[in-house]
């Protein structure tokens, strides 16, 4: 009798890719959606606030949900995300659009935690290194999705048509993410061969908050380029719209490449070094981008910033996944993911306020200094137990 065996690592990559396809193409679809629904800028902005408003509580709830549902969590939240994407495309009023965005935001937050919890469980179960590999797929998908969605709109495709295609791809990824094997690792992380507790496996919640704060600074830096990089190129270096869009794209390319490199060679480097060097290089790259006197130098700075910061958050999550017992892992991952996400949310208004006070280049320079905080946070990975022997994911 035929039996579905799931998509393995391919299923996790599929979720990361389909998630990135939506968020990468979202900005290109918004003008058409705004026009179709006759929304003012104020109305659109208020509706878009539904995404983070739903994502944060969903992230907090997904940890306990993953603890109960285990391997079923990721397919479930991914399926809900696909439904939300489809409903956004079909929304015919502002109220329906806002409600759909609440669903998208909640499911997206669920994917943030569900995917990370699944990666941590698989690493513990199979002894594989997966975080950087899977996290590299999302920014790469976003780089491809942004111009693809723009091209589709240019050729006459409606936002509904584009979102329907994305929703189908998300649904396929939810099916591929089905894992029949379960999450029980061969040797529980909290025990040694003789059943003794691993030193540090009972670290207090404060340790998770500290590591989450390091991740928050890294994501604050990341979102500053995504949201303000193109604006900086236009305002300070007179770049046109097409060239300006290359700023965030360069950062995303560096982010994906850096994670692929870390997946390939990162096992040879201590976790604290990956975080510290990543923060220092990321901060230096962002500083070059902020101070650049030409577009090529700015793009080079953004590329280096992405490559430098690439391993920081995946490494922190992997450290947490290895450092807590299986029964606490999903909640721990939820805590670190949610605290880190706070930096992502704080970045746009923070940079905007700084830019209004001291100018955008200086504001980005201040954000670049966050790399020093990330670098200083490298030794804090010692709050979790040292990682066991690992092998490369295939």
Automatic annotation (TrEMBL):
Pfam families: MFS_1. It is a multi-pass membrane protein. The keyword Transmembrane applies. It comes from the Bacteria. The chain crosses the membrane at residues 7-26, 46-66, 73-91, 97-122, 134-152, 158-178, 205-221, 241-261, 273-293, 299-320, 332-357, 363-383. It is found in: Cell membrane. One of its GO terms (cellular component) is plasma membrane. GO terms for molecular function: transmembrane transporter activity. Residues 208-394 form the Major facilitator superfamily (MFS) profile domain. Keywords: Membrane, Transmembrane, Transmembrane helix. SUPFAM superfamilies: MFS general substrate transporter. InterPro entries: MFS, MFS_dom, MFS_trans_sf, MFS_Transporter. This is MFS transporter. It comes from Kitasatospora camelliae.
């Amino acid at each position: 009798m035929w039996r579905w065996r799931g998509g393995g690592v391919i299923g996790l990559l599929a979720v990361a890719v389909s998630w990135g396809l939506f968020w990468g193409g979202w900005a290109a679809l918004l003008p058409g959606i705004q026009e179709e629904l006759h929304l003012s800028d104020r109305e659109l902005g208020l509706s878009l606030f539904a995404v983070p408003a739903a994502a944060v509580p969903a992230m907090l709830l997904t940890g306990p949900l993953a603890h109960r549902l285990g391997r079923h969590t990721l397919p479930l939240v991914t399926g809900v995300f696909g439904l939300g994407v489809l409903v956004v495309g079909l929304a015919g009023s502002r109220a329906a659009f806002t409600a759909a965005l609440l669903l998208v935001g909640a499911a997206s937050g669920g994917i943030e935690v569900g995917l990370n919890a699944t990666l941590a469980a698989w690493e513990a179960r199979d002894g594989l290194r997966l975080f950087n590999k899977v996290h590299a797929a999302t920014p790469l998908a976003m780089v491809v999705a942004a111009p693809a969605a723009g091209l589709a709109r240019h050729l006459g495709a409606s936002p509904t048509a584009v979102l329907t295609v994305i929703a189908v791809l998300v649904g396929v990824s939810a099916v591929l993410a089905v894992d029949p094997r379960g999450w029980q690792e061969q040797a529980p992380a909290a025990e040694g061969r003789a059943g003794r507790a691993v030193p540090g496996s009972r670290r207090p919640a404060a340790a998770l908050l500290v590591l989450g704060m390091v991740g928050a600074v890294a994501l604050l830096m990341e979102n500053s380029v995504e949201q303000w990089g193109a604006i900086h190129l236009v305002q300070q270096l007179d770049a046109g719209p097409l060239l300006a869009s290359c700023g965030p794209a360069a950062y995303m390319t560096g982010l994906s490449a850096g994670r692929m490199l870390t997946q390939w060679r990162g096992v040879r480097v201590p976790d604290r070094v990956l975080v510290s060097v990543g923060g220092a290089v990321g901060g230096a790259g962002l500083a070059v981008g902020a101070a650049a006197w030409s577009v090529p130098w700015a793009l080079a700075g953004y590329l280096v910033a992405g490559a430098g910061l690439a391993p920081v958050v995946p490494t922190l999550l992997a450290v947490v996944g290895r450092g807590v017992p299986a029964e606490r892992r999903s909640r721990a991952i939820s805590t670190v993911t949610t605290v880190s996400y706070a930096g992502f949310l704080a970045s746009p208004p923070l940079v905007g306020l700084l830019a209004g006070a001291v100018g955008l280049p200086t504001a980005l320079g201040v954000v670049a200094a966050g790399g020093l905080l990330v670098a200083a946070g490298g030794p804090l990975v010692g709050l979790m137990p040292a990682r066991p022997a690992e092998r490369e994911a295939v």
